[in-house]
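Notebook entry, structure prediction.
Reason for the run: the old model in the group folder had no record of what sequence produced it. Starting over properly, with the input documented here first.
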Amino acid sequence: MSRRPLTLFATCALAAGLLGAVPAQAQAADAQRQQTFAAAAHEFGVPENVLLAVSYLESRWDYNAGTPSTAAGYGPMHLTDVREAGTGGTHHDEGTEDARGDEARPALHPQAPPPQAPPPNLQTIDTAAALIGADAKVLRTDTVQNIRGGAALLSSYQHNSAPDAKDWYGAVARYSGADDTAAASAFADEVFATISTGMSRTTDDGQRLTLNATPGVTPAREQLRSLGLKPSAPQPGTECPKTVACLSVPAPYQELPNNDYGNHDLANRPQSQKIDYIVIHDTEGYWDTAMRLIQDPTYVSWHYTIRSADGQIAQHVPTKDVAWHAGNWFVNAKSIGIEHEGFAAKGTWYTEAMYRASSKLVGYLAHKYDIPLDRAHIIGHDNVPGTIPSTIAGMHWDPGPYWDWSHYFDLLHAPLTGIGRPGSPLITITPDFATNQPIFTGCLTPGTPCAARGSGSIVLHTEPSDTAPLLKDIGLHPDGSATTMGVSDVGSRVETGQKYVVAETRDDWTAIWYLGQKGWFRGTHATSPTFGLVATPKQGLATIPVYGRAYPEPTAYPTTVPAQPVTPLPYTLSAGQRYSVGNILGSEYYSATTFNQADHVVVKGKTRYIQIQFGHRIAYVKAEDIRLLPAF
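New structure, fully documented this time:
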């Protein structure tokens, strides 16, 4: 349906008329965005609840400091502009990390091809700008014009004037940008579920919005047939919940020259090894690039990818098999890796459509494999430890400080607020994501401050002072240089949902044990008391070693499998220090160094390990070295 763009004067007049019709208390500064949605919906003939719900599924109505999403989307309506956000690169060819992380094989550092131009559906801002007669730059930074542009774009997808929300199913599905019916309908179904249940929240810039519930809306799903999208045939072999759109894009298990093979290992999990972790990644590139790379036998692998704009999921490796994704072979052998389209720094926020699809997938997998829904088992790539001292500095740091762990776990129906008595020595990190805005550097240019926006990260200091230096991470900075506020520097940073032991308090400052040091942060409101187990060295031990993997003792290996070294990391865990316990593990090593699966062996030892939250990353200590104590 074509509509003539209104002039800015007419738009202002219309908005003034609408504002004049509502009670004075609704005209407060924190209600302006609500009125902007109402005005844009009226201007372009879109049902207001449809416009609000579409925006919520894209951005949760946030401004995000004018920065692009992980899929080049700007503003509350997620209008995409790859020209401005950039074409991006790839994930596993960045840095020095060996994605496989197994010293029994040569390090794997694949070189990805140059990124190709993203598809046209990632350049919607030009169409929206033309529809309202504005410049694309304005739509990136001005929330009023961004919402108008999104409303105009949504309206242009509607073939007739329809006042009822149910008749906008096809337009909503088209707005997703999906090219197949399953993904488009999954997005539209989430939008209409939001319309049915309603939503209310305060945005990252203090705007209060409400979408009143409209139960009983039965959308016209038959409209999908008129969109010309690719039909979605059943996808045999995919392991996904029924409520998401799930493709099969297999990663090749293929023999290569020089006794090499790629790009994952066959296994028989969970019969052979229990799956203990789900690792959250981001692709550092766009969907199309990820789909090309996962099908390259010379590249690396992961189990799933999730698309940003609409939550489309693709499965690449069966969960019974081991993908090469986390840079630590012990973690790889006991985890499922999920990549999310986008960038940890340059694109600094993730869409609600992606969060919802990911949480449904993780909830399904956690139930299937009995994985606890906590931050000791649902971890970021940035929480995976280096295997030995030389690999720590090259470990990846995605999904980064702008991934909203609190919201993610709310969607998993497993809130991260700790349960414990006030004054408990064990605390869960629980800052308010929207108002917690540490200023990192290097999102666009090294050393340049990033835009101020919500984060789940809290930065630690050596003393209870905002001007005190940050802690040192001798593994991340082996030359002894200081930790920085660089967005990729996790050496003095804790994250939402992680648990730590209080070492000291002074006024409104709290110190926790972190990498063998006391790390200070301001504000008890950023934590919740928690109960659980903590680990401390046994009496008589001045220090104990810390490990990046839980490998067996040498005598556990059969003669056909070379014993893998159990090498301590370069940190000190001293008497009197205490760390949160995340898991109690047996020692295991999956020997899989040849293409023939018959040669693969799971070696299990008698040594037992305790997983602890040691720094930003998890670590392992031997059970024989520590005492387990309750914390309430």
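Summary: The first helix runs from residue 8 to 20.
The old model has been moved to the deprecated folder.
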